[in-house]
Amino acid sequence: MTGTAPPRTLYRKVWDAHAIASPGDDEWLLYIDRHLLYEVTSPQAFDGLRAAGRTVRRPDLTFAVADHNVPTEHRAGGLSAIRDPDSHLQVATLEANAREFSLTYAALNGPNHGIVHVVGPELGLTLPGATIVCGDSHTSTHGAFGALAFGIGTSEAEHVLATQTLLQKRSKTMLVRIDGAIGSGVTPKDIVLAVIGRIGTAGATGYVIEYTGDAVAAMDMAGRMTICNMAIEAGARAGMIAPDDKTFAWLEGRPCAPQGLEFARAAEQWRALASDPGATYDAQVVIDAATIAPMVTWGTSPEAVTTIAGTTPDPATIADPVRRAQMVRMLDYMGLGANQPLAGLPIQVAFIGSCTNSRIEDLRAAATVVRGRHIAPGVRALVVPGSAAVKLAAESEGLDRIFREAGFDWRDAGCSMCLGLNPDKLKPGERCASTSNRNFEGRQGPGGRTHLVSPAMAAAAAVAGCLVDVRAFA
Amino acid sequence: MQPFHRLTAIAAALPIANIDTDLILSAKFLKTVSRNGLGAGLFHAQRTDREGAERPGFVLNREPWRRAQILIALENFGCGSSREHAPWALLDFGIRCIIAPSFADIFDGNCAKNGILTICLPQGEIDRLMALAADPATALLTIDLETQTITDHAGAVRFDIDRPRRARLLHGLDDIAQSLAFADQIAAHERGVVLGAPWLGDARLAHLP
Q1: Percentage of chain B exceeding pLDDT 70
Q2: How far, in Å, CA of A323 to CA of B18, rounded?
């Protein structure tokens, strides 16, 4: 074996190709290939640049889009349609900064607009082996393509704007292997919720997760994006999946992906990114896909999750006083008691959207459940496509008609009701079956109660008027 | 960024695990283009009721903890959203140091960039400090980054910290300036990409419709 390089993981290969200099103490400057920006976390970074008299090193690798603040209806007027003055100012500031620093900006209502983690891959900005950052924790989404992608703060965004690098320490690696095939009615969202339920919301803190296994190999790119998207909900720095033929087929022809012969050359390099046989990980989790059922969260942390056949836990059975208090607090916020079945719990709102679950595959899955049915009386239901392109594709397939006829609102792209930053919010006490990623207190609006589910489960809940096992709808 | 050397201040205990950045600063306070003035929104749902009146029971609304500059919390503090507005709000309120068994990754990094010292201690030590912080007579702590010690009325405990982070906090360093000193290596990498993986060096943004 002399002279043979030690086997490396996917993460290590991407890291090694980008760690370009070390100031010492295991810290490295990691070169960043793609920097994505949006309106909420970037204005102060541009202010910092101006204050220091610095400029953007690589505007040609930087892409900006407004998604968090934007209304998802009545916005034909573009920027002027944003009524909230603070939201208007943030979006206007992003536009102005993009102009001042010569950045590409995807205008509201333009063909490239959408949630940053939906349009990045769609446009082919997301590529295997690339390093991708954005001032948003769900940047982990892009790891589905074998990129190293993670969320950063505003100071770090300023650092990337000025230097096209970040100061980083190498993370530990965690292999999450999903063996076997998932059952019908079970989706990638259920898989990632099951993973978070198993390892906990801090279970992967300090790690980069690599997902492997039969269920991941069988998953389409949308599903892979869903499970990488929520890697951060287990505390991971990033989630990654080795690129394969499915990845390449998905990327080929995207406007910002390499074209023709160069694509073939790139794909050859990308194939070599997969973890080497014998590569070791700092931790390993194996889950049998067959044991995963449709999942639903009951509390205010994504780890507070069970199956749709499950019940809320009983704090009285928890010995540790801190854990018990935590559980009491969560149940109290959610308006639930101990040992309460989740199936049958009435909902007032169903939300299908967010960077976790707003792609065409997600909308198709929801439409399959909804087709020929109507939402229950008293339920408010929204479908918010992740991008202008997803919206257009859905309309060309007639999905919009299925949703509208069933009583759903059919909206324009944006982060919408994932977080209470735009007009789409829960009212205090409202209970929502949501395809988003966080069930934190007040996340979808002050006092709102969030149950995280898959798109099919959210659709079923909208129709039934309560949390329900989508498999009963087959 | 303001350097951190030595801080003698009131510590407040927040005995809740997994405090997320939505809880620290909820979305409605993110609609700002400034870093300043966010302290008013800190822990808003905990500090105020629906009518906007202070909840007298919340620790940061009570004396002497209204003046707390040190927080003692439980595991996975700062999980969730990457919003740097959370540390900005803490800083604006006056918090310069957070002590917990563990922190979420992005939040921890954001604190360091803003001169907030985060200290990890074992649960037993956290329990002891929380008990001290709960009593106004013992809630005053001294954090010394130079000697890496936390001193209370009875004695001192040492803490570990990453060496480069300690240096940056002590000196209030701007790490962008430090990284720009590597301009030659950055440029060399960019030249290498042009040959080795040109698709990474050219995002083809001009090809967008």
Answers
A1: 100
A2: 11
Produce one character per residue of B40-54: b if its CB has 16 or more CB atoms within 10 Å, e if not. Answer: ebbbbbbbbeeeeee
Partner-chain contact A151 B82, CB within 8 Å:
yes
Whether A159 contacts B113, CB under 8 Å: no
Give burial (CB, 10 Å; 0-12/13-18/19+) of A16: exposed
Q: How far is A449 from chain B (nearest CA, A)?
A: 14
Q: Is the per-residue pLDDT at A451 higher than 80?
A: yes
Closest CA to A33 of A117, A131, A123: A131
Q: Closest by alpha carbon to B21, among B108, B96, B101?
A: B108
**Nearest 5°: phi and psi at A15?**
-60, -55
pLDDT (0 to 100) of residue A1? 47
Confidence band of A3 (pLDDT split at 50, 70, 90): low
Q: What six digits make up the tokens of B62?
A: 């009570």
Compute the distance between CA of residue A43 and CA of residue B33 in angstroms, rounded to an integer. Answer: 5
Write down the mean pLDDT value for chain A.
97
ipTM of the complex: 0.95
Partner residue opposite B84 with nearest CB, options A41, A86, A447:
A41
Q: Which whole number is the average pLDDT over A18-47? A: 96
Residue whose C-alpha is closest to residue A247's, from A131, A130, A123, A144: A144
pTM of the entire predicted model: 0.97
How far apart (Å, rounded) are the C-alpha atoms in residues B197 and B193?
Answer: 5
Cβ(A126)–Cβ(A34) below 8 Å: yes
Closest to A365 (Cα-Cα) out of A468, A303, A435: A435
Chain B 128-157, CB below 8 Å of chain A: which residues?
none
Tell me which of A322 and A220 has the higher pLDDT. A220
Instruction: Report the pLDDT averaged over residues B158-176.
Output: 93
Interface test with B, best of A40, A113, A164, A356 (most B CBs within 10 A): A40
Q: Is A30 on the interface with B (CB under 8 A)?
A: no
Whether pLDDT at A2 is above 60:
no
> In the predicted model, what is the mean pLDDT of residues A48-62?
97
pLDDT at B22 over 90: yes
Residue pair B132/B11 in contact by the 8 Å Cβ criterion: yes
* Closest Cβ opposite residue A44 in set B34, B82, B174: B34
Tell me the longest C-alpha to C-alpha distance in chain A.
71
Task: Identify the pLDDT of residue A165.
Answer: 98
Contacting residues of B for A419, CB less than 8 Å apart: 22, 27, 81
Burial of B126 (0-12, 13-18, 19+ CB in 10 A): buried
